[in-house]
C-alpha cells in the first residue's frame, strides 16, 4: 500500500477523528461466512418477506463512537463515510428508504459474541473469520483489508523498512482487532504489544513516546497519518494472513435467513460499480504504500 498519499488525496476523506475500530481478530479468509449458500428466490427477498427484527424497518448495528473514514461526524445516520454509505446502499437494494433504517449501538467486541442480536446486521470493519463464524454469520466481503504501520518522523519506528525491522519496536494496537493479531502472529515482536481500548488511546501513546509504532487497518492508518498526526509517517502495509486477502463482512445472528438476500444486494452493488465508487469516494486510493516483507 502507499508510502503516503498526497494531501489532496487525504482531503477526499472527511476531516474528523479516526480511531477506527479496525478489523477484528481474524482466523480465516472470506470463505468463513457460516451462512447458507445458493441464490435466494425473488419472493424470499421481497421487502415485505424479509425476516427482520422489526417489521418494515431495517435495523443496523455499529459501535459508538463511529470513526472516519468509515463514518463521518460520529453519525451513522447521515450516509457519509464508507460503511454508512454501504449500509444505506444495501438497504436501498433491499427496498428500504433512509427513513426506514434504524441504527443501534453495538460495542465492537460484543458484536461477534454468541447469542441473539438486536440488529439485522452489523457493520463495523469486522473481518470474516472461521472462528467468529462459529457464533455468527457473515455476508460476502464488502471491503478487502490490509494492515499498515504508523510511526513518528525521525524515530526508530520511521526507519523500519521490513517486518523484521519491526520486531524490536514497541508496537501497539486496539484490543480485539486484526491489527493486534497481526502484530502477534505476523510481526512477532520481541516484546508483547501494548493493547489499547481504542485507536485514540494508541495515537496518544505514539505521540507521548510510549510506543514506537501503531498498527491499524490501512484506510484508518492512512487517515491518521495524513490528517491527524502531523509529524507521522505511514511506513508500509502488509497482509495479516499469508496468502489470503482479508475481507470485512456484514455480521448477522447465527442462522439468519437474511444473509442470502443481503449477499444478493451486495452482488448487485458490486456489479453496477457502486462498491467501487464508494471506495474511491470515502477511502480513496491506497496503492502507493509500500508492502512490508
Summed over residues and divided by their number, the pLDDT gives a mean of 85
Query: Class of the largest domain, according to the CATH hierarchy?
Result: Alpha Beta
Unreliable stretches covering 5 or more consecutive residues: 1-31
| Overall spatial form | elongated
Number of helices: 9
Instruction: Give me the CATH architecture of the largest domain, please.
Output: 3-Layer(aba) Sandwich
The CATH topology name of the largest domain reads D-Maltodextrin-Binding Protein, domain 2
Number of domains: 2
**Structural class by SSE content:** alpha/beta
Q: Strand arrangement, largest sheet?
A: 7-6-8-5-9
**CATH superfamily name of the largest domain?**
Periplasmic binding protein-like II
**Helix and strand pattern:** HEHEHEEEHEHEHEHEEHH
Tell me what portion of residues adopts beta-strand conformation: 15-25%
Q: N-to-C terminal Cα separation, in Å?
A: 12 Å
In this structure, how is the largest beta sheet organized? 5 strands, mixed
Helix content: 25-40%
Please provide the count of β strands: 10
- What gyration radius follows from the Cα positions, in whole Å? 19 Å
Amino acid at each position: 500500500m502507499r508510502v503516503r498519499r498526497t494531501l489532496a488525496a487525504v482531503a477526499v476523506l472527511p476531516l474528523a477523528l479516526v480511531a477506527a475500530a479496525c478489523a477484528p481478530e481474524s482466523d480465516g479468509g472470506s470463505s468463513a461466512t457460516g451462512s447458507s449458500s445458493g441464490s435466494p428466490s425473488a419472493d424470499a427477498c421481497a421487502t415485505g418477506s424479509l425476516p427482520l427484527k422489526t417489521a418494515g424497518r431495517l435495523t443496523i448495528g455499529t459501535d459508538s463512537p463511529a470513526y472516519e473514514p468509515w463514518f463521518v461526524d460520529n453519525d451513522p445516520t447521515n450516509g457519509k463515510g464508507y460503511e454508512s454509505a454501504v449500509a444505506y446502499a444495501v438497504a436501498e437494494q433491499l427496498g428500504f428508504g433512509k427513513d426506514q433504517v434504524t441504527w443501534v449501538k453495538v460495542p465492537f467486541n460484543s458484536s461477534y459474541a454468541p447469542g441473539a442480536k438486536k440488529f439485522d446486521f452489523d457493520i463495523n470493519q469486522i473481518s470474516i473469520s472461521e472462528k467468529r463464524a462459529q457464533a455468527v454469520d457473515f455476508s460476502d466481503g464488502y471491503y478487502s483489508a490490509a494492515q499498515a504501520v504508523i510511526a513518528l518522523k525521525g524515530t526508530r519506528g520511521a526507519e523500519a523498512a521490513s517486518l523484521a525491522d519491526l520486531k524490536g519496536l514497541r508496537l501497539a494496537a486496539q484490543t480485539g482487532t486484526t491489527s493486534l493479531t497481526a502484530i502477534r502472529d505476523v510481526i512477532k515482536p520481541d516484546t508483547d504489544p501494548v493493547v489499547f481500548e481504542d485507536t485514540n488511546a494508541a495515537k496518544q501513546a505514539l505521540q507521548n513516546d510510549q510506543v514506537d509504532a501503531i498498527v491499524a487497518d490501512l484506510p484508518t492508518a492512512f487517515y491518521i497519518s495524513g490528517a491527524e498526526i502531523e509529524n507521522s509517517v505511514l511506513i508500509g502495509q502488509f497482509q495479516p494472513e499469508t496468502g489470503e486477502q482479508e475481507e470485512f463482512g456484514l455480521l448477522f445472528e447465527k442462522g439468519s435467513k437474511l444473509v442470502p438476500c443481503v449477499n444478493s444486494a451486495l452482488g448487485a452493488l458490486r456489479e453496477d460499480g457502486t462498491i467501487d465508487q464508494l471506495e474511491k469516494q470515502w477511502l480513496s486510493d491506497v496503492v502507493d504504500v509500500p508492502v512490508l516483507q
